[in-house]
Amino acid sequence: KAGVTQTPRYLIKTRGQQVTLSCSPISGHRSVSWYQQTPGQGLQFLFEYFSETQRNKGNFPGRFSGRQFSNSRSEMNVSTLELGDSALYLCASSLPDSNEQFFGPGTRLTVL
Amino acid sequence: EDQVTQSPEALRLQEGESSSLNCSYTVSGLRGLFWYRQDPGKGPEFLFTLYSAGEEKEKERLKATLTKKESFLHITAPKPEDSATYLCAVGTGYSTLTFGKGTMLLVSP
User: What is the pLDDT of residues B49-102, one digit of tens each?
Assistant: First the structure.
């Protein structure tokens, strides 16, 4: 069974730009969660989608948004990038109402 | 507020030297305690899920245990390939995990 895939793996952007990251969950997993990982803050929850609906959201500004498509694939968008947005962005998928999450390899975003 | 604290932050062991990592938590409604392993530049790899106090899970040289306030990850006779950051997380809400900051383990030959 294929794991969670994320594209692109690496991104370099400049301040003020926007970026879109993509995540394809494990086949049969309909819940997709996004996390930001930085050396100082560790892994922090961004939001979770199930059946194209955002069910839960972490404590991040509105510049961070996401969506889920009917095939369970998900995208997250960050607008007006700031230097502090440099991080590893991780996507995880799970069966509905299960907290047993399986992570992708992440997208490394660098904001210059 | 849900909180997860892991200790120590870093641990250096000699090959074969057993030890334990600690994860203490405060959460309003626990929906599982999870252990992950993360290698540099990679996503976390799922290891164990524990749901109730007294529960134990084992996998090769790793054994996870759970009490009402904390979990331990015991590493028996570690090998250099066990070197990684070990993350503990608690489940809260729909498919939502609150993570600790991890324990960086280095096993020297």
Answer: 999 999 999 999 999 999 989 999 999 999 999 999 999 999 887 778 999 999
* Type of residue at B46: F
List Cβ neighbours of A62 (8 Å cut-off, separation of 6 or more). none
3-state secondary structure of B34: strand
Distance between B79 CA and the closest CA of chain A, angstroms: 24
- Paired residues of B81 in beta bridges: none
HSE, CB side, 13 Å, CA atoms: give it for residue B56. Answer: 5
Residues facing A67 on adjacent strands? A75
User: B43–A103: do the CB atoms touch at under 8 Å?
Assistant: yes
Q: Residues near A68 by Cβ (< 8 Å), separated by ≥ 6?
A: A32, A49, A50, A51, A52, A53, A74
A36: contact with B, CB 8 A cutoff: no
